[in-house]
């Protein structure tokens, strides 16, 4: 009887220990589930990081494209401006082309006879015509006729500008007009233009200063 009771106690104790072991030790299935969850979380983070990188790369690319577009637009505008400053006109005859140049301010020495003479240096003299608050200093070099206009009301004097132009033309040679060329340098308004004829074509350039327009005419003549 005592032996049977002892066996019963031992069996009960074994069952109790087995129950405790099952409640505290995680099963292999539980380990696998937790591992799977952690793996999915890592993959999710990696995917999110990859997406953010793609978005940032796309944004940088867009900004670069926009910069290129703006730069291209700026270049196009500069090109259009340069085109407006150099013009070529075709006429039916040489006579029509010459008449157009005359209308731009071409004058002969005979037209300015009797006016006060101004020494412009390098053996060149000009004539000064003043009136109504304006001053016009005119001279000829070869087939070119030049006029500098100034505002006497604003205290402007065309002489210094004319001397600077004459001095510049000693080292820089303008295109040789076939018949005639006209240069108008209006320091009162800041408009400077050179126009010359070649056969039945007329070339015109404008600039921001006498030096600027002369250089542009030289470049055009070399093309």
TrEMBL record:
Keyword Signal found: yes
Record's compositionally biased regions (Polar residues): 63-77, 84-94
Low complexity bias: start-end ranges: 47-62
Domain of life: Bacteria
Biased composition (Basic and acidic residues): 31-43
Keyword field contains Signal: yes
Stretch forming the signal peptide: 1-25
Record keywords, A-Z: Signal
Protein name: Lipoprotein
Species whose genome carries this gene: Candidatus Ligilactobacillus excrementigallinarum
């Amino acid at each position: 009887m005592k032996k049977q009771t002892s066996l019963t106690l031992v069996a009960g104790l074994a069952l109790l220990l087995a129950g405790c072991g099952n409640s505290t030790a995680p099963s292999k299935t539980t380990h696998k589930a937790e591992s799977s969850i952690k793996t999915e979380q890592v993959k999710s983070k990696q995917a999110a990081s990859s997406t953010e990188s793609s978005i940032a790369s796309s944004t940088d690319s867009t900004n670069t494209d926009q910069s290129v577009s703006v730069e291209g637009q700026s270049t196009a505008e500069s090109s259009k401006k340069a085109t407006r400053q150099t013009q070529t006109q075709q006429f039916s005859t040489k006579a029509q082309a010459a008449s157009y140049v005359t209308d731009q301010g071409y004058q002969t020495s005979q037209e300015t006879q009797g006016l006060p003479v101004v020494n412009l240096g390098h053996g060149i003299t000009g004539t000064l015509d003043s009136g109504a608050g304006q001053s016009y200093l005119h001279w000829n070099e070869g087939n070119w006729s030049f006029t500098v206009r100034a505002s006497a009301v604003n205290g402007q004097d065309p002489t210094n500008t004319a001397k600077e132009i004459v001095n510049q033309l000693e080292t820089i040679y303008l295109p040789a007009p076939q018949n005639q060329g006209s240069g108008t340098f209006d320091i009162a308004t800041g408009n400077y233009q050179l126009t010359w004829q070649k056969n039945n074509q007329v070339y015109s350039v404008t600039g921001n200063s006498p030096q600027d327009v002369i250089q542009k005419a030289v470049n055009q003549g070399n093309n």
